[in-house]
Amino acid sequence: MNKQSLVFCGKRKSVQGLTLVEVIAGMLISALCLSTALQAYVAAVGVGVKAQDSNVALKVIQSDLEDIRQKAQEQSDCSLQTSQPSGYAQKLMTNVLGENPATFSDPSTPWVVLPNPTSLPSDYQIDRKMFVDNSASANTTNLLQIAYKVTHSDSGLEITKLNTAVMPDAAMVCP
Question: What's the pLDDT tens digit per position in 8-31?
């Protein structure tokens, strides 16, 4: 009487339960679903960490940019007016920020490595590049172009970057 059903008085009564094949199939499906969910979780954690690193880097960039904007506001003295084609933006770079005047109009200027603040992980490097676009087509001789990038110093992987421009207050106040 090893059959799955028993015969009692001409009626068949089936035996309830799962076969070994059904149990193994269920476990296999569960394992596939669980592994997919764990992969998604690990990917989400990785994206979260990357976003947090990018956020910290952007705060450091914002802090440096606010320092530059503060110095640009302080430079409202019209006596700094220059006859050079780069105007007040060039004066901001030389008089206030101490940047090399040879790189004023060259967008391929090399990156300057900034000191690494304590809020940024020690294996990250923050770079800044500044130039004045004084080409005839640009007509922006009072705009100081600033580019930032934060990279992982070991792998060279770019964490974040930001491009912006600052106009000294003197460009708006002075004739």
Answer: 555 565 667 778 898 999 999 999
163 bridge partner residues? 147
CB contact burial 40-55 (16+ within 10 A = b; e otherwise): eeeeeeeeeeeeebee
The conformation of residue 93, written as its DSSP 8-state character, comes to I
Cβ-contact 89, 143 below 8 angstroms: yes
* Tokens 């339960």 -> residue: 17
> Is residue 143 within 8 Å of 112, Cβ to Cβ?
no
Q: What are phi and psi of 149, to 5 degrees?
A: -150, 145
Contact 128, 147 (CB under 8 A): yes
Token pair for 107: 């967008």
Quick one: DSSP state of residue 110? P
Contact assessment for residue 70 and residue 96, using Cβ atoms and an 8 Å cutoff: no
Widest Cα–Cα separation across the chain: 116
Structural tokens at position 98: 């101490």
List the structure tokens of 36. Answer: 């997919």
Q: Which residue in this structure is represented by tokens 């930032």?
A: 148
Cβ neighbours of residue 158 closer than 8 Å, sequence gap 6 or more: 149, 150, 151
Cβ-contact 136, 60 below 8 angstroms:
no
Q: Is the pTM of this model over 0.90?
A: no
